[in-house]
Amino acid sequence: MPRKAASLSGSAGWDEYAAFYDWENARTMARRDVPFWRRVAAAAEGPVLELGCGTGRVTVPLARAGIPLIGIDLSSPMLHRARTRLRRTRLAARARLVRGDIRRLPFAPATFALVAAPYGILQSLVRDRDLASTLSAVAAALRPDGRLVMELVADLPAWREYREEIKLHGWRPGRRAHLTLLESVRQDRRRGLTIFDQEFIERRGRDVSRRRFALTFRTLSVPQMARRLERAGLRVAARLGSYDGDPWTGESETWILIAER
Known about the structure:
The protein contains six helices and eleven strands. It has helices at residues 14-27, 34-42, 59-64, 76-88, 128-141, 222-231, and strands at 48-51, 69-73, 95-99, 112-117, 142-152, 162-172, 177-188, 193-204, 207-218, 235-240, 255-260. It starts with 13 loop residues before the first helix and ends with a strand.
């Protein structure tokens, strides 16, 4: 796959990814983190905002649990899939989905008891000023006793580089098509970025189609993100290394930060 320049905003690629997101996540992340987010949201005792709600992988289980929820995402194709999923599960009345920019949250101050940022969404903000704007917007949107709970993709800086490896393959439900993910990974260590060049190859009989795009993430560590939270006026209350609440260490496979206003 041709090498692409990393997006300066981090938003590039997500519209294209929408068509494949659920297929890939069912084989990688699946629902391992959903019980954690359900517990955190149920304990919030107030409205919840989910940043980067995407296709509704976390949104739908929270809505099913009766949690008052707003999901925000910049990608229209992602939101379309989330809305379809909510309608099919008859949960459309339980969650409000908003197309918007998380750097400038379109909500009144002190609205939310919890802001949830699942699985690396804040690492898609590849410029420090964009992350700072988002964290300031989150701090303003939280109630005085509110919390931001966020997960980082663990150990991005240590991901090995590789080129055009078959990472996943299998049948695509409902389409009678076989899908293959051919992936390359690049590290831009000067800018602290990890770039995933994705090529999805869909075969349906003799027909073959290919979709190519890149997703870019900041390679921020837990201590680096904690410092940015503190600069935004948020107090880091906990660093977790598992969905069961174990303390974070440098060897943890899960990186979760809980910050309070």
